[in-house]
Design brief:
This protein is mainly β. The protein is about 0% helix and about 55% strand. The chain has no helices and eleven strands. A hairpin with a 4-residue loop joins strand 5 (about 45-50) and strand 6. The chain starts with a strand and ends with a strand.
Length: about 110
């Protein structure tokens, strides 16, 4: 199993920034890539970004140009730097590895 704990969420005004963190423990050697997803109230979970252990990165259309994913393999951590936040970015942000999910960290962006 893999345990994931997210942190770094909060409330910001539009245009602000937040940096989310996710620390993984357990069978992390099997986490070839780590992903960030988000879920807004009443909506389905949405892919945001992922990064492979080798550093290959993919972003969703909404995240591209504003969000930056990075990792520290030695610490089993993945980060999501979010800049120029918009109210539509308001959601619970979850880290994912191999189908395991963290509890999430709430991001609220006010206009």
């Amino acid at each position: 199993q893999v345990q994931l704990v997210e942190s770094g969420g909060g409330s910001v005004q539009a245009g602000g920034s937040l940096r989310l963190s996710c620390v993984a423990s357990g069978y992390t050697d099997h986490c070839y890539y780590m992903s960030w997803y988000r879920q807004s109230t009443g909506k389905e979970r949405e892919f945001v970004s992922h990064i492979t252990r080798d550093g290959a990165i993919t972003y969703s259309y909404s995240a591209k140009g504003r969000f930056t994913i990075s990792q520290d393999n030695a610490k089993n951590m993945v980060y999501l730097q979010m800049n120029n936040l918009k109210p539509e970015d308001t959601a619970m942000y979850h880290c994912n590895c191999l189908g395991f999910w963290g509890q999430g960290t709430q991001v609220t962006v006010s206009s």
